[in-house]
User: Fold this.
Amino acid sequence: MTSGSQKFLVVDKHNPDQTIIRKAADVIQSGGIVILPTDTAYGLAGNPTDPVVVDRIIAIKGRRGKAGMPVLAADFSQVLDIAELEGKAYDLAKAFWPGGLTLILPARRNLPKGVQGPRGTLAVRVPNHPAALQIISSVGYVVTGTSANRSGESSPHTASAAYSQIGDQVDLTIDAGHTRHSASSTIVDCTVEPARLVRKGAVPEEALQTWLTVE
Assistant:
């Protein structure tokens, strides 16, 4: 693997080459899979509405079980296209997006089983990463955001760590350096009352207490 390879491209996180942004978006729009940098971990980005893409990602990771697959959005409008965002969920999103908080929300439309949770839910996040946001915005719709590693292995915080595990099974890897956080995103389930902390991560639990307590 070299940074000059057409399958492994290096970008400046804050001022990415627009040619590379467009190339990554084109790969996703054409049904491919991209190792994508975010603020928490590198992820596998593909079209979450395409069952073939979703099945391919599941196979790459060696995933089992019925849990849904998180998706990444560029902005609130992309989120609202696929999920309901109201009440405390909206307040949490306003407070912590873009950032390291994933919200479990009611789905607005049916997506493949590998993406949508068993209760008709979606795990959604807007990452705090300029290059990732530009790629997702260029794609024009949300992308899958499951971590770019085999199931059971550690989430990768560098492109090379992701590439060493699964780089030969994806169509493109975007390297934007080490992730901002060394932890995965925090996950909060907003489909229950009160909202429930599902996984500790990049957003500290104490920062969420206002939304996690019963009024």
Summary: Residues 40 and 181 are 5 Å apart (CA to CA).
